[in-house]
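I hope you will forgive my troubling you with a question about protein structure. I should value your view on which stretches of the chain appear to form regular backbone elements. Here, with my thanks, is the record as I have it:
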Amino acid sequence: MKTTELQGIKQRYNIVGNCDALNHVLDVALQVAPTDLSVLIIGESGVGKEIIPRVIHDNSPRRREKYFAINCGSIPEGTIDSELFGHVKGSYTGAIGDSPGYFGVANKGTLFLDEVGELPLATQARLLRVLETGEYIPVGGTEIRKTDVRIVAATNLNIRQAISEGRFREDLYYRLNSIPIQMPPLRERGEDIVLLFRLFAMQMAEKYRMERVVLTEEAKQMLMRYKWPGNVRQLKNITEQISILSKERTITPDVLAQFIPQDRETTQLAVIAKGGGEHSFENEREILYKILFELRGNVNDMRREMSMLKKQIEDVQAVPHTFISPSTALSPHQAIANPPLEDAVAEEYVEPAPEQENLNLNELGRQMLVKALERNNGNRSKAAQELGISDRTLYRRLKQFGLDR
């Protein structure tokens, strides 16, 4: 392909980069576009696979027909057959009319099946038949329909491993893989990383009317050494983070290290760091651990207090009850009007807990009320619901602890 033609394609689709691998991908896409051969695009998540099907369609004889991009992983397994191949009225609950499906609507056009490796096996069999014969049967129907659709598929899965594990049909793989296109990961694109950073930084500066961030030479080298497991999508996110969060507009390695891992061989995703390294998700995790330990300590304290109260009640119940003669027995009506004698006896013989234990219980209850109110921004109804008590009980306890003001 001529350099001028290649640059024209890049400008039209806003493709940034000059590496040989990317140029080869675009060259193959333009060569296969005039044909009706199926294309399988393979590459890691975030490398920009969705651009290539558009290039193929727009440079094919079908460019005036419809183009649909479908993410197979986002459609529920129970409805994906209906989405792709359509259905007839009454074929399932909610099918109030006939639907042509994507293969019917996109007739004469192009279908881009993204994440094709997520298709269920039954749907894979239907797709194989369409690719081989151009025929399909709608869900719930009996009539064979014809379609003329160009298929471009993409996946970030290891398809050969999926085949060996029985998750993907081998015959469908060979049918889709008429023309394979391997998208290069960002870490193999060299100086394209710096060009993409410059583009994203310029877009942020124009959108939010701010000064554009600029990399020093050392920062550029650091950017190219990082492995970018999230590829172009991750680079764009980090560029946006730097543009917004960094106080410095000239980005040095020290500033850049706050946004990407410093280990040049790492493939872990980056974390956001505040300027000066004062903030990280590690600190937030430590705070959560402290809260959990505090809550666990409160629960253990409650268990100890409950065990002590239970023991006191058992000791009271073990005291012999006063003998009641038949002549002094209560009638049924009297029994209803008066409290049961066992409760009266138990109440009479309950020994008060030591003063320190009562203080512990009261303080624990008070702390729980205060924390529940703080967590619910002072909303008493929500705090009562969290504590598992009624609003009336909450108000009574607030008054008891002097918190009702």
